[in-house]
Amino acid sequence: MRFHYTFQKVVDLKANEKTQAEWMLSSALGELQAQEKSLEDLLEQRRGLMLALQHAAEQKTPMSKLREMQDYVDYLDHCIARKHLDISRAHVEVQHKQNHLSTKVLDEKVWLKAKDKAQTAFQQSMILREQNELDEMATVRFAMKSL
Length: 147
What we know:
The chain is rod-shaped, with a radius of gyration of 34 Å. The protein starts with 7 loop residues before the first helix and ends with a helix. The longest helix is centred in the C-terminal third of the chain and has 84 residues, at 63-146. The chain is 92% helix and 0% strand. The relative contact order is 0.14. The protein has one domain (7-146): Helix Hairpins, CATH 1.10.287. By secondary structure, it is mainly alpha-helical. Its main location: membrane. It holds the Pfam family FliJ. Keywords: Bacterial flagellum biogenesis, Bacterial flagellum protein export, Cell membrane, Cell projection, Chemotaxis, Cilium, Coiled coil, Flagellum, Membrane, Protein transport, Transport. It comes from Paenibacillus riograndensis.
């Protein structure tokens, strides 16, 4: 006789939920990395512009051009500040997804443990049944020899 777990569909569902939570965490981590890469690009762009601005200030550059470059630096500073907020939100989202995954992993473990216990109980009952059958056969043989 083969073991059949009554709640196998629940175990499968919990495994699927865990897999989905892993994908969601992976997606959130990808978003965080994209935001961090974008911030690095903005910071690099600002560094290059600051060097160009410094170089332009040392040269005979019209004030309007310097002002235009400074306005663009200010714009980049604003973008960098916004990007820091985006990164903070992405960190919060990653933390949320990690917590969600932890819950799903724990939930799956609970159901797998219940399945293991049910399987162990089934195996014990099969061993007991087999032992009883062997005892009965031995009793019948003993009774036959006695006659």
